[in-house]
Recover the amino acids of this structure.
């Protein structure tokens, strides 16, 4: 089955889309050619999200990855990963320094996208390295050392997000289901950008996280499965559902002339 990309032919929908809701308030917005072009160029915190169709379950090409590389874990040969793990397990601080030098920037980017701001992201990454140091004896090599480290980061971000929600509830503030992110596209109409932000916020947390890890951070489904403690098949299905939901929420209705044809 082909992957359900973000820039696919529009289908008529009986349910009002985000486009229709915004138009009811803001008037007509550019579409459909402009909207399709916009979706092909959307960025997440400045990182391009690929909308090119690919076979469901295949991996992002290196040129599509935000840093031009491959998956964070895949760039580590098995020998390098094992050497990093051994160095950290022996208490060698140079091992942790190398781990940070190689993955610190990507870890901060992932944490920022999950938590929505740089301050919390910095705290989460620092806490992750402390947890890695405390828990290194429990690493058994059942996954790569880098994947194991990212799993600790993901769980640390989840803990921070839950703590933030609890504080909001105690303060009687409106709970924040999804962190606010700025999505940018060259020349994008503000209304279209708002529609996209709202659509992403309406995904389930699990769908957003899998979408983020796969499409933005460039992890493989096997790696996502290890991080989120799910199966690779569940990761693929969640990504499929996330893309399907985004397409349904964002697709503009067909014009009457198009339907007549």
């Amino acid at each position: 089955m082909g992957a359900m990309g973000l820039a696919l032919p529009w289908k008529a929908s009986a349910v009002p889309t985000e486009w229709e809701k915004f138009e009811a308030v803001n008037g007509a917005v550019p579409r459909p050619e402009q909207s399709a072009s916009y979706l092909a160029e959307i960025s997440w915190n400045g990182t391009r999200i690929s909308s090119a169709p690919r076979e469901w379950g295949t991996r992002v090409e290196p040129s599509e990855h935000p840093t031009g590389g491959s998956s964070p874990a895949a760039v580590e040969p098995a020998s390098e990963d094992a050497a990093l793990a051994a160095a950290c397990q022996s208490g060698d601080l140079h091992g942790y320094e190398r781990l940070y030098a190689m993955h610190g920037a990507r870890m901060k980017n992932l944490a920022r996208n999950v938590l929505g701001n740089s301050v919390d992201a910095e705290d989460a990454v620092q806490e992750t390295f402390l947890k890695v140091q405390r828990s290194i004896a429990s690493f058994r090599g059942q996954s790569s050392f880098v994947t194991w480290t990212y799993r600790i980061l993901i769980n640390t971000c989840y803990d921070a997000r839950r703590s933030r929600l609890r504080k909001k509830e105690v303060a009687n503030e409106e709970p924040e289901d999804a962190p606010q992110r700025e999505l940018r596209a060259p020349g994008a109409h503000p209304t279209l950008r708002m529609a996209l932000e709202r659509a992403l916020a309406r995904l389930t947390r699990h769908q957003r996280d899998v979408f983020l890890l796969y499409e933005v951070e460039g992890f493989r489904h096997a790696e996502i499965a290890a991080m989120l403690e799910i199966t690779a098949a569940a990761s693929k299905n969640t990504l499929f559902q996330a893309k399907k939901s985004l397409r349904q929420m964002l697709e503009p209705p067909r014009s009457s002339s198009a339907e007549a044809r």
Observations:
- The domain at 18-260 is CATH 1.10.1740.10 (Rna Polymerase Sigma Factor; Chain: A).
- The chain has one domain: 18-260.
- The two ends are 28 Å apart (CA to CA).
- The beta strands are 43-44, 47-48, 183-184.
